[in-house]
């Protein structure tokens, strides 16, 4: 019985290490590919290491394409989405968690219900709404809905507000705070971890989004990073190793966010499993 | 805000009553953004979509009611059956394999292995990457000209394959890449579930003389069946709505008409719908596809909920 324990661990380690290698090696290969000359990139059988490393690939692709404008657009969409999600979803969630108002429970059931409804049936009419509002080929359709509250975000924040003891609310009421002031001054500052989780999730989702930008954006100067890079491979005959470098540039901001906020990402992943 | 405050202070006698009323008003005011969201972007769009699905609509001219025309056309369209099969094939390969692998990884990591944080991070790397990035990572392995997979095959004396262009390989390879991208995410969900199993269960099994394999099948698997069920539901829904991966990897350009793989071998339902809507501007036809896709997904989800009684344990 005693002997079995370490064997389990050895098998566990072998399995996890093998899996980690399967995750890492393709990424490393891609990084090396981004540092090759075109000739070395196209050679078969491939050589793993770049020789010598062409660091200039990164500056070349940045200068050659509209990269700075793609990056700025992606940042605008991601940041406006995060602000919108944090403000509106927390406000809505506060009302659901802490205030009594007509049809509250029915409305909350609806929020949960819409979480189950897939977005597919609404794509076409949504496109037509934004087209009629004159928002086609602008960034607005990519972030505006976050300002009207998203079911998952509302659910996440409501859980956080429910966990705060009632005493805080009553003390604030005695001090003459109205519900908005209680939300803004007392409850919101107490929910920083949940807000951070929501911010990380929204940022990642928006930074990587492809479907909406493909539908709504038409001109190159409005493209976000993922579809900017996609369009490069279609439009210009850029050398492929440069496109690899471009794709990896787009990974850097999200990697930074992830390294700083890994804790919140794990929390959010667990929560998304609990719905 | 300020006015309300002074009003309350001025009439302390009716304060309680006033507070109740104003609480209701505040509540409705604070949830009003979601009310707009729900009425316009959920109810409004669903009704519109249903109406379009019974109409001929090209965006430029107002929709013209044509009854069941779109649905009749759909059920005669060979591309619909092709994309339906491709979607089903993707799901059949994707959901069980990914669920099982994610569970195994979570069980391995749950043994309090050293370096948990590092392993978790490595498995998250593909999760946080966009499909555009993943496309180039997959290219490093599966590109028919320069990828490592073919270099490896040629060493074994096997002819190079076309992977993502080949009719036979495209779906299995897409599934492999999709599992690789997101298995880390499901692993975290399983890990959270595993941490909820009390160690007493394992100790009791040990006393009964169970080995590691028996403990996995007799304790872990039943105890975690609730989480497994959820993971299966989430992945089935994801699989049926998979658009971004197929769009980016089998076509690789923003020209919508060019995607779908060789001989439409990777044309899935979402891509089929997207093409009808945004390449050919057949909004009515696309809406009909969306509703059929939705109903299929709904039926599968309901069946899964019915079946869960047979294998999911709650206590």
From TrEMBL, chain A:
Family, per entry: Belongs to the binding-protein-dependent transport system permease family.
Keyword NADP: no
Xref: Gene3D superfamilies: MetI-like (1.10.3720.10)
Source organism superkingdom: Bacteria
Organism: Brevibacillus brevis (Bacillus brevis)
Chief location: membrane
InterPro entries in the cross-refs: MetI-like (IPR000515), MetI-like_sf (IPR035906)
Name listed for the protein in its UniProt record: Carbohydrate ABC transporter permease
Pfam families, A to Z: BPD_transp_1 (PF00528)
Compartment(s) of residence: Cell membrane
Keywords carried by this UniProt record: Cell membrane, Membrane, Transmembrane, Transmembrane helix, Transport
Segments forming domain ABC transmembrane type-1: 71-261
Record carries keyword rRNA processing: no
GO CC, alphabetical: plasma membrane
Lineage: Bacteria, Bacillati, Bacillota, Bacilli, Bacillales
Transmembrane segments: 12-32, 75-96, 108-130, 142-161, 182-204, 242-261
GO biological processes: transmembrane transport
Membrane protein topology class: Multi-pass membrane protein
């Amino acid at each position: 019985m005693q002997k079995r324990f370490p064997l389990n661990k050895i098998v566990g380690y072998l399995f996890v290490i093998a899996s980690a290698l399967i995750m890492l090696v393709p990424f490393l290969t891609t990084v090396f590919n981004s540092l090759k000359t075109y000739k070395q990139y196209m050679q078969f059988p491939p050589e793993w290491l770049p020789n010598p490393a062409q660091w200039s690939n990164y500056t070349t692709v940045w200068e050659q394409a509209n990269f700075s404008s793609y990056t700025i657009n992606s940042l605008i969409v991601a940041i406006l989405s995060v602000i919108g999600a944090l403000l509106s979803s927390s406000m809505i969630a506060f009302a659901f968690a802490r205030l009594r108002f007509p049809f509250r429970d029915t409305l909350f059931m609806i929020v949960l219900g819409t979480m189950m409804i897939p977005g597919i049936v609404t794509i076409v009419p949504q496109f037509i709404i934004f087209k009629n509002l004159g928002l086609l080929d602008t960034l607005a359709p990519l972030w505006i809905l976050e300002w009207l509250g998203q079911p998952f975000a509302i659910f996440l924040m409501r859980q956080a507000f429910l966990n705060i003891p009632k005493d805080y609310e009553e003390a604030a009421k005695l001090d003459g705070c109205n519900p908005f002031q209680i939300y803004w001054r007392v409850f919101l500052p107490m929910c920083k971890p949940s807000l951070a989780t929501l911010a990380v999730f929204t940022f990642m989702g928006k930074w990587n989004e492809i479907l909406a930008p493909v539908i709504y954006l038409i001109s190159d100067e409005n493209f976000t990073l993922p579809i900017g890079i996609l369009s490069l491979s279609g439009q210009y005959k850029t050398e492929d190793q440069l496109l690899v470098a471009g794709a990896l540039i787009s990974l850097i901001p999200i990697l930074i966010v992830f390294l700083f906020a890994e804790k919140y990402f794990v929390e959010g992943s667990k929560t998304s499993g609990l719905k | 805000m300020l006015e309300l405050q002074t009003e309350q202070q001025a009439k302390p006698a009716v304060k309680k009553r006033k507070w109740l009323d104003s609480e209701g008003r505040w509540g409705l005011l604070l949830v009003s953004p979601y009310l707009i969201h729900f009425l316009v972007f959920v109810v409004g769009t669903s009704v519109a979509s249903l109406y379009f699905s019974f109409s001929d609509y090209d965006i430029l001219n107002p929709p013209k009611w044509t009854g069941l025309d779109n649905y009749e056309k759909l059920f005669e369209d060979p591309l619909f059956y092709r994309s339906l099969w491709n979607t089903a094939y993707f799901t059949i390969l994707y959901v069980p394999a990914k669920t099982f692998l994610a569970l195994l990884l979570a069980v391995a990591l749950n043994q309090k292995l050293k370096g948990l944080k590092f392993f978790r991070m490595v498995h998250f790397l593909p999760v946080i990457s966009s499909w555009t990035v993943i496309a180039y990572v997959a290219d490093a392995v599966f590109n028919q000209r320069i990828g490592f997979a073919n270099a490896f095959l040629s060493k074994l004396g096997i002819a190079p394959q076309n992977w993502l262009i080949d009719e036979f390989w495209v779906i299995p390879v897409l599934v492999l890449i999709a599992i690789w991208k997101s298995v880390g995410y499901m692993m975290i969900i399983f890990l959270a579930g595993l941490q909820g199993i009390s160690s007493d269960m394992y100790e009791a099994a040990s006393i009964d003389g169970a080995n590691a394999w028996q403990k996995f099948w007799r304790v872990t698997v039943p105890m975690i069946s609730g989480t497994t069920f959820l993971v299966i539901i989430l992945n089935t829904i994801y699989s049926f709505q998979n658009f971004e991966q197929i769009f980016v990897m089998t076509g690789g350009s923003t020209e919508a008409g060019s995607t779908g793989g060789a001989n439409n071998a990777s044309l899935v339902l979402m891509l089929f719908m997207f093409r009808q809507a945004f390449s050919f501007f057949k909004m009515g036809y696309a809406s009909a596809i969306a509703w059929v896709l939705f109903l299929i997904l709904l039926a599968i989800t309901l069946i899964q909920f019915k079946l869960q009684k047979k294998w999911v344990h709650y206590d």
